[in-house]
Each structure stands twice: as structure tokens, then as C-alpha cells.
Specification:
The protein has 264 residues and is of the alpha/beta class. It has two domains: 91 residues, 2-Layer Sandwich (60s Ribosomal Protein L30, Chain: A), CATH 3.30.1330; 160 residues, Alpha/beta knot. Helices cover 39% and strands 22% of the residues. It is built from 13 helices and ten strands. Helix 9 links the parallel strand 6 and strand 7. The radius of gyration is 20 Å and the shape is elongated.
Length: 264
């Protein structure tokens, strides 16, 4: 058992909570049993695993799967695990994984029908939840623009609850050139914007077409030069007294509107 949080290896792994270290190494940290369960479907991505004795006892099947997949499993003390986690209450396991984003061209090769494009989204919880919602709606990819939060940020990774292993995603995408590529591939670009037409008025035949949904920043939405690139602006109508909708909630509604139309 590794018991000393100041051990060089532990200090080195703990640096992966910072973006600079993640960029330099091409690695990131994955925390929690659900994320590990999904990652073990692609075990070659896992460099090594750190787990407490209590986690090993409670999730013995996951630890056995990791060992059977020849993942290096290290049993550590609670204090060591806490050094590797950025949460107040660690979940007992942290995996060091290889980054695995793809390119826009890779996404286009699969002839996508539904894509979520996150333009300068900064909140980790929102970013992870949008990716999770895209996964649930059956989207073919999620695109993160330049200026968006790092998808490998531990908070984003946790909030995806493993969905990041289910669909391809692109990072640091240039907005104008990326949207142009999707348009050339036949996808309609719908921008979620309060100035747009009500989603309730959009015909299902239009929503059934291959579509890229464009979502803007939590505070200011889509910038004018970005919204101008959309084929149509669409708003999620509010029928009650709420002042507004959370970004992730609105994104979920938009993607499911397309998913219902495409799968009816």
C-alpha cells in the first residue's frame, strides 16, 4: 500500500488536476466508480489506477476487471487518495487516463445526424451535463470551441458521469471553419438564442434533418458574429414564470427535440 502523500509519484499524478500538466502529458484524472466502469470498456486508455482498501472491498468486481485488463492497480491510503482528488469527499478511486479527443474530420467521417457544439462554455458542470445530455439524446458528437472549459478538467469529467467515453468529442475547435465544414456536410446549424423562433413552432420534419445545435456562453449566449453563422436561431419557450433556463437544461430540450424527430 502507498501511504505517503508526499511520494514523488503521487505528487506527479496530483499535478494532473492542473490544465498545464494535462496539456504537457496528454493525460487526465478520472474519479469515481461510474467513470471507472465506463473507462474499463476501453482499458487501453487507463495508464494506472489508485484505489483505497475500502473501495477495493466495495467495488471488488471493478478492481478485478481492471487487473484482468492488465491495468496497474495501486492500493493507497485515504490521505494519498485525497491528494489525488480535487473534491472535499473523494470517491475512493482515481484513474490516470490518456486523452482521447478526435478531430472535426474524424466526426464527419461518421456522417453525423445530431451534433452538439459548445461555443465558449466556461462552467465545468454545464459542459459535462451538456455532453451527458448529448449522449442520452443519441448525438453523434460534441464539439468544444476554443475558449471553452477544458473537457479534461476533473469537474467536467465527473459531471459527464462516464458519457465522455460514449461519443466522440472535439476540443479547441475554431468556430467559423468548423461550422462551415458541418454545413458542407449537409447539417443545418440551429443556434440556441433567446432572439430566435420558438422551438414549439419548428416543424418536426425540419428537426428530423441532420442538425448541429450551437450553444453559447452561460452569461452572454452566442456572440453576434457567431449567431450570424447559424442557419436559424431557435429559443426554448418559457410557459411558466421562470426568468430563464439553465444552459444545460435548454441544451437538453433542444437536442431531445431533434432526437424525437429523428427517431420517430
Amino acid at each position: 500500500m502507498i501511504q505517503d502523500p508526499s511520494q514523488a509519484e503521487i505528487k506527479g499524478v496530483a499535478k494532473l488536476t492542473k490544465k498545464e500538466a494535462r496539456s504537457e502529458t496528454g493525460l487526465f484524472l478520472l474519479e469515481g466508480p461510474q467513470g471507472l466502469k465506463e473507462a474499463l470498456e476501453r482499458p487501453k486508455l487507463i495508464e494506472k489506477l489508485f484505489a483505497t482498501e475500502s473501495f477495493e472491498e466495495k467495488y471488488s468486481e471493478l478492481i478485478s476487471r481492471a487487473r484482468d485488463s492488465r491495468v496497474s492497480v495501486n492500493i493507497v491510503s485515504e490521505s494519498v487518495l485525497k491528494e489525488l482528488s480535487d473534491t472535499t469527499t473523494p470517491q475512493g478511486v482515481v484513474a490516470v487516463c490518456q486523452q482521447f479527443h478526435v478531430s472535426i474530420d474524424d466526426v464527419l467521417l461518421s456522417k453525423p445526424k445530431l451534433v452538439a457544439f459548445l461555443a465558449q462554455i466556461r462552467d465545468p458542470g454545464n459542459a459535462g451535463t451538456v455532453l451527458r445530455a448529448a449522449d442520452a439524446a443519441g448525438a453523434d458528437a460534441a464539439i468544444f470551441s476554443k475558449g471553452s472549459v477544458d473537457i479534461y478538467n476533473p469537474k467536467v469529467v465527473r459531471s459527464t458521469t462516464g458519457s465522455m467515453f460514449h461519443l466522440p468529442f472535439v476540443i479547441d475547435a475554431d468556430i467559423p471553419s468548423s461550422l462551415e465544414k458541418f454545413k458542407q456536410a449537409g447539417l443545418a446549424v440551429l443556434g440556441a438564442d433567446v432572439a430566435g423562433a420558438s422551438l414549439a413552432t419548428i416543424d418536426s420534419t425540419e428537426l428530423a434533418k441532420p442538425t448541429l445545435w450551437l450553444f453559447g456562453n452561460e452569461a452572454w449566449g452566442l456572440e453576434p458574429e457567431v449567431s450570424a453563422l447559424a442557419d436559424k436561431l431557435v429559443q426554448v419557450p418559457i410557459f411558466g414564470a421562470a426568468e430563464s433556463l439553465n444552459l444545460a437544461t435548454a441544451a437538453s430540450v433542444c437536442m431531445y427535440a431533434s432526437a424525437f424527430a429523428q427517431n420517430s
